[in-house]
Each structure stands twice: as C-alpha cells, then as structure tokens.
Amino acid sequence: MLPARIRDGFIDALAETGNVSAAARTLGINRMTAYRWRGDPDFAQRWDLALDVARQGIRERVVETACAMGVGRWVLARDPITEEIILDDDFEPVLRFETGHVDARVLMKMMDKLMRSEDGPVAAAVQVNNHVHAALPPAPKLVAPTVDAEFEEVFDVGN
Questions:
Q1: Domain-embedded: residue 105
Q2: DSSP state, 129?
Q3: For the chain, which end, N or C, has fewer CB atoms within 10 Å of the first or last residue's CB respectively?
C-alpha cells in the first residue's frame, strides 16, 4: 500500500482540479488505484469533500468571469412573494449574482467544467434561446421593359 502522504496528495490534487485522472497523473499513479482507495469509507468521504471544494472553485471562476466580462452584478436578494429583502442569520442583507447578456458558448463551456464526471463531460440539460430578428432581403421588383417608338419602328415590335 502506498504511503498516506500520497493519498493526501491525491485528495489535494482532486480538490484543485476536480478531475480524478488529472489528480492521479500529478502523483504518477493510475486512476484505478485511486478508485480502489475509494473503497475506504474515510477516504471516500474526503474524496467527496474534495470534489465539493473543486466545484465551488469552478463556481467562483464562473462568477469572476462574468464580472470580468461586465455581464454580472450583485443585487439584493428579495422574497419572490413579498419583495422584502432577505436577511442572513446575522441580519445582513443577502446578495445574489445576477447575469445577463452572457455569450451562450462561454456559459456552456463553464457548465461543462462544472458538470464533469469521472467518465468525461456531461451533456448539460440547458436550453439556450438565441433570437435573431432579421428580415429576408427585399425581393427585386419585376419591371416591364419599355420600348421606345424608334425601336418599335426599326424592329417592327408588336405586329
């Protein structure tokens, strides 16, 4: 059995990356070794906590990215029925992050990172509606040619 410091290193790497294969590679071990270690209930609990830490880090990066893109802002959380400001346990106002005008490609990439599993990316169950208000180009007008009198005489048009 490998030393406990390698198991601890795996948990640290898992908390940082959120990816079992990447965490195993950093320590030079096979990922299947880590899955065998997961049979230990204490190690499995630490594993789950490490993944929670990694997901929280990704959520924070999503918020930071939205802020950097200038598409998000912090607003007071309000009760949906009474519209009163929601307070936390210390009677401080609760803030929520509101986003708008986020590029769907960026959002899907962030969600892909957030929703990874050991088997690879998970298809996000999200529908993105992009409405483009564009009319068809105007059709060309059909115009009957005009024939001048001189042309008619020369070519005997209309008879």
A1: yes
A2: -
A3: C
